[in-house]
Amino acid sequence: MLSSSLRVALRPALLSNSCLGALKTRHVSTSELLRELGKITCDRDVSTNPNDLQQHGKDEGPHRVSEPQVVVFPQNKEQVAEVLKFCNRKRVPVVPFGSGSGLEGGASAPTGGVAIDLRSFTKILRVSPEDFDCTVEAGVTWRALNFFLRDRGLWFPVDPGADASLGGMCSTSASGTNAVRYGTMRENVLNLEVVLADGRIINTGGIQGRARKSAAGYNLTNLFVGSEGTLGIITAATLRLHAIPEKQVSAVVQFETPRAAIDTVVEILQNAVPIARVEFMDERTIQACNAYSKTSLEDKPTLMLEFNGSQTSVSEQIETVASICEDNGGTEFKWAEDQEERNLLWKARHSVFYATCAQRPNTKCYVTDVCVPISKLPELLAATKEDIDRSGVYGTVVGHVGDGNFHTMLLFDPKDPASFQVVHELGERMALKAIELDGTCTGEHGVGLGKKELLLKEHGSDCVSVMKSIKLALDPHNILNPTKIFD
Amino acid sequence: MLSSSLRVALRPALLSNSCLGALKTRHVSTSELLRELGKITCDRDVSTNPNDLQQHGKDEGPHRVSEPQVVVFPQNKEQVAEVLKFCNRKRVPVVPFGSGSGLEGGASAPTGGVAIDLRSFTKILRVSPEDFDCTVEAGVTWRALNFFLRDRGLWFPVDPGADASLGGMCSTSASGTNAVRYGTMRENVLNLEVVLADGRIINTGGIQGRARKSAAGYNLTNLFVGSEGTLGIITAATLRLHAIPEKQVSAVVQFETPRAAIDTVVEILQNAVPIARVEFMDERTIQACNAYSKTSLEDKPTLMLEFNGSQTSVSEQIETVASICEDNGGTEFKWAEDQEERNLLWKARHSVFYATCAQRPNTKCYVTDVCVPISKLPELLAATKEDIDRSGVYGTVVGHVGDGNFHTMLLFDPKDPASFQVVHELGERMALKAIELDGTCTGEHGVGLGKKELLLKEHGSDCVSVMKSIKLALDPHNILNPTKIFD
Prior knowledge:
CATH class of the domain at 246-445 in chain A: Alpha Beta
Helix content of chain A: 40-55%
Number of strands of chain A: 18
Largest interface: A-B, 109 and 111 residues
Oligomer: homodimer
Largest sheet of chain A: 7 strands, antiparallel
Number of helices of chain A: 19
Distance between the termini of chain A: 18 Å
CATH architecture of the domain at 246-445 in chain A: 3-Layer(aba) Sandwich
Shape of chain A: globular
């Protein structure tokens, strides 16, 4: 992208980035970080406690724990800005930390430096029911927001399962079970408050912008959504809200083959049924759920469905979907109509990770996700299940199939590197197959440390070099979450 | 954003950008352009015909016509790439040209150079009905696409009114009457094929990516959507399609005051009615429509509505909306149920621009749009109408009010600069008021030449400098549509 003369000028900066580890230990000792960051916040908001360091170097994924040198707990965006100014001047790596529920090592600190924990950013700053939007600080979790909204007839539908912070969800472009109807974070963020590498604070969608749509300049909001902390630190987000539907009904239907379940989903979409959730679970996932969540379903490929809308609309959706299910050999629906039953059902779905882990004590779970055009799902699903079976690994397959998105959860022995290698290669093959089928190596988990090579395969080196040139333009010293997304 | 040493290195490039006009005439004569571009395409695909130059220097907006030196009509992306390589080497400005239906001067060539006309890019490359997506070349218009899709049960819902090319619609982040239900270009583009300033060709969403969602790297697709040709030339787009609804019904309802009409829209949204279109027209627009499109509506603030869905769902939506309209003093619905009547009605809506122009012969129309949170619409609408009345200008107000987006069309005498100044200042005041009310200076027309100062007001200088640093990273010699969005 850059002219050759510029490329020469920029090379020293690029080279120095690859030596950040060395710079860190050479120039900024932990004691200096403690002292200087303590001046910006207050001494008790900077920690080198081993528990803090250990907790902040990891997430819920299988990647190696890499601890930061210090953890800082700023109390407001101005303190975040001061921390970044200092770190930028001193070339200290900075890793933002929300709830630590990521899966691709985004919160890890392989080059040391400072973890910025946003746990104090828990204010819901504004809710405008008449405009269906709100502004929250980055540390607010989606569950806390929905708890706050519950009596206002409003909700925020993006549900990644774990009780993630909304700042983290913006960073990783999270989605979840409701995306088929309500979209992902990309469609539900109107504006972000971001602290840049040099400490400047911007609002990506206008200084106080919260218009439903805008054609004013580059869409920085959606550049920062999914940038995994590599372009700036998100301190607040303006989000779209939705009216709580008059009626919500959930159901379970089971099939003889995964193909029959997927064909059902394709037909539901072709019939333009505004389905709110449609989740696939393979027979092994059902076994794990029955054991862990005390459900009593048959060990068969299963769809978990949710219908939202008015009473009439929900009845009509159910009628259409029931008939499609029947045509594909599905069982009769098992219903969950009241709130308590619905909660139990979706709790079981959201507990699949823990249910899978519980199947083999002393193992760890390697979770990975891909997304393909829905017509390619049956082929990818069959290939993946066959590959898992062949490997002898215990693994479950679940997915937001309405989007063509699914996950495998593969158990490995954390003490045996060869065991990790086997599941890692399974994940790689699934991702490569997804790319081959016009899909993506990750629908919602992000690239982090784990999928850098796959990103390159998927996008090609020219496209990734465009991403890198944007990174370099916004963070010339590569202090922001270095080594994530690309090297 | 850049370190001070880098800033020094980059300054000469920045400075030279501001002298592009001089460089152009000094280094690359029109005859050289003709000769060199003729080698890349073939001689008949490069033109200096005065009609071609005049047609390519303007769009449908009121901005000054600035002609390119030559127009080139490449036949494929490889030729676009070669043209860009040449222009990048020689520092020649390049302005992409779709259908010329823009409104903010995006197609104008104030610094001369080459207009790249994509009229030969008319292939629909692929339609996947089972995945609800397609890939089209940039010159295909949305009407041509929908004509092609009509027998497949599918449609592409973004309708900016004019028969714009889909490449142009990507560039300006177009939307239109269906955005309230189906989203804008941002929500309906899955991937873009883009030729970069240096001639490299990338696919922003993966080499052959068409997953419904992705968390793989930066969201370049939505960076290029709305970038108005300043970051690359879009040569193809992969788009989401939607199932044609079983039933589509349109209706007109009229109110005593604009406030009553807007309150109705707010209540429709609060009741989570999945309305497909809800368009506001003020009484003056209705007068113009009656005269131009031979409709026979009362001269009153009016909503034009469309309901999509199954028979049952449409009936229920209508029942809810009719009751809300009645509560707000609306008249009974005037129906348009069959395709022909619906077409007439929406044709009238889409002809408002020409209807307005027809009211005062020998005038030109200054169209501008803003978007605000819907609760702020009544205040902005009232202020704008009062301002128009006070000025003595003839102007109509119409809008996609479900999104909080509306347009004014203001007539001026093209021979009288003072007359232009009056309407321009009216537009500026409306945009400033929209920004003050947490909105944006443009919901769908873009910044182009006309709203650069407003962008700065809306986003602040730090945010705009981030946009500029991205521009510089991707187009270091500022050859791509220079002087648009920012200086």
